[in-house]
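ESCALATION

Customer reports they have been waiting on this structure for their group meeting. Please prioritize. Original submission:
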Amino acid sequence: MKKIAIIVLNWKQPKLTVETITSILKINHSSFIYEIVLIDNGSPDNSLKIFNKKYKNNNLIKILDTKSNLGYVGGNNFGINYALENNFDFIILLNNDVIVDQNFLEELLKESNHYDILGPKIYFAPGFEFHKDRYQKKDLGKVIWSLGGKIDWNNIYGSNISIDKVDHGQFEKINENIDFISGCCLMASRGVFKTIGLLDKNYFMYLEDVDFCQRAKRSNLKLACIPKSVIWHINSGSSKSGGDLHDYFITRNRIYFAYKYASLRTKLAVFRESFRLFFSQSKWKRQAVIDLYKHKMNKGSWQ
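Update from on-call: job pushed to the front of the queue and completed.
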């Protein structure tokens, strides 16, 4: 039977993480063996104490402590290395702010012979939609968050396919026409990591999943969103959207990504844009540009 490592990264949100793990422990798994690799990313609170007490006798959960905050990238790479060293066949990166359907993993595994990187259909968790007033009560839990992602290569912006649309059964076809699978839930075989490496540590957080998928596509690996596999995302549950943190990491990482993968024309446009951002009213956008050109990556200047 195939062995699957489900990596769940926590930083100061034990309640949210426990809810996610509770849903994972209910999955059907007659066709595979799995282990939840619960990684605490150096939380300064009592997260580890809570996890050790709650899961000390659960042999389905391996608790690891990074000792310090390595960011989304470093924390997940910590877990990926553990999974590779322990000969897991597949590795899943799963946010700590999701609820999974009982069959989500079996449905991904069914298609794993055809695709190298797979993701599920992701709904907004009820009440966490961007536009809550837009939907009827019967629509809640069926509003799409992602069916894979596309990149606007002229402007270097990623977007989730079919976001905000209500699923009436029209999204049941496997989608191969995608540029990336969200790190909210991404499954890859160990062979993928052996071929293209781990997440790029330069990012620290944001756009690392898009980068990972671009490296895969440029190595002729196949991506797909599998709609029979379903999870619900508590949107921005683990990282609140907006603010200085987003200004810094998205600004810096977007330019870095463009210089790695975009056309010459787009690189020149991004270069000009970076000078405008340098004079932005946002302190952290300015610092992002400075750090990018000084090659100060990973955590950079973020405090």
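Sent to customer with the following note: Residues 2-233 form a domain with the Spore Coat Polysaccharide Biosynthesis Protein SpsA; Chain A fold (CATH 3.90.550.60).
Escalation resolved.
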